[in-house]
Specification:
296 residues, MetI-like fold, mainly alpha, 13 helices, single chain
Length: 296
């Protein structure tokens, strides 16, 4: 009886400590999510709130029928893949460079990790100035290097605008990969690497046979997290091009913001709900695939 009473009291005590956090998260996170989800199935327009009829899947049908949708979907895919692959490669190389101890390594780590503390919107504003066609530093450097003969309209050319925003996002996201991979590299046992070196394994062999398999889980989870954040991060594009020119840098989240600015909250909520579903399915299949790889 005493054990049972103690167990109940302990459970109630733990619940009491967690109750404020549960209430806070539920009120400010899950309740707005439920409200936004039900708006996705209504004709909810900011300019006429007297009538918000239930339209079911009508908002989703309008989104799929919009001729802009294929362009936005393609841009989103290019945005995510074009950002994640260079971030992974460069971040991995940076982590390898910082793995070995050398003088002032802490200073270099601080300088490399600093961009992650900067706001994404501020990064977009900085790169918007850097890619400016008239007085941007990018054109100035390329012209001095002899790579171009005349300034390029980076943010006004439909073919160059996506390149510019991806470059900005790569610069911003490399830091996250470097932080995560460096932390994983520091957990690799030195004894295993020394034993492999004694057995005659070279640097490349140790990298692909020992280091990468050892930190494979961290790499997979880092790619997953960064993919989700990139899919959901409109601030850099919004600050640099606002989805232009001619919608060539519009991704799904900037498209959602545009509908919100127009007052079409029903359509914007439908896009947001669709994004949640797509990311949930992507995470499920990604984790299943990683689990199968780890079991081999």
């Amino acid at each position: 009886m005493r054990r049972r009473t103690f167990g109940r009291r302990q459970a109630l005590t733990i619940l009491g400590f967690f109750a404020p956090a549960i209430v806070f998260v539920s009120w400010f996170t899950y309740w707005p999510m439920l409200q936004g989800a039900q708006m996705a199935f209504r004709d909810w327009n900011l300019w006429d709130l007297t009538s918000t009829p239930w339209v079911g899947l009508g908002n989703f049908a309008m989104i799929l029928a919009d001729p802009v949708f294929p362009i936005v979907a393609g841009n989103t895919l290019v945005w995510v893949v074009g950002s994640i692959v260079p971030q992974l490669v460069i971040g991995f190389l940076v982590a390898l460079a910082l793995w070995r101890r050398f003088r002032f390594r802490g200073v270099y780590q601080a300088l490399i990790f600093y961009p992650w503390a900067v706001s994404g919107f501020l990064v977009g504003m900085l790169f918007r100035w850097m890619f400016n066609a008239e007085f941007g530093v990018v054109n100035d450097l390329l012209m001095k290097a002899g790579a171009i003969d005349a300034p390029l309209p980076w943010l006004a050319d439909p073919k160059l605008a996506m390149v510019a925003v991806i470059v900005a996002n790569v610069w911003y996201g490399v830091t996250f990969f470097a932080i995560m991979i460096l932390a994983a590299l520091q957990s690799v046992p030195d004894e295993v690497l020394e034993a492999a070196a004694i057995d005659g394994a070279g640097t490349v062999r140790r990298l692909f046979s020992i280091v990468i398999p050892y930190i494979w889980t961290t790499l997979a989870l880092t790619v997953l997290l960064r993919s989700i954040w990139t899919f959901n991060s409109p601030e850099i594009i919004y600050a640099m091009t606002n989805g232009g020119p001619a919608g060539r840098t519009h991704i799904i989240t900037t498209w959602m913001i545009e509908y919100t600015q127009q007052g079409s909250y029903g359509l914007a909520s439908a896009i947001g709900l669709a994004v949640m579903v797509v990311l949930f399915v992507f995470c499920a299949f990604y984790l299943m695939a990683m689990r199968r790889v780890n079991q081999r």
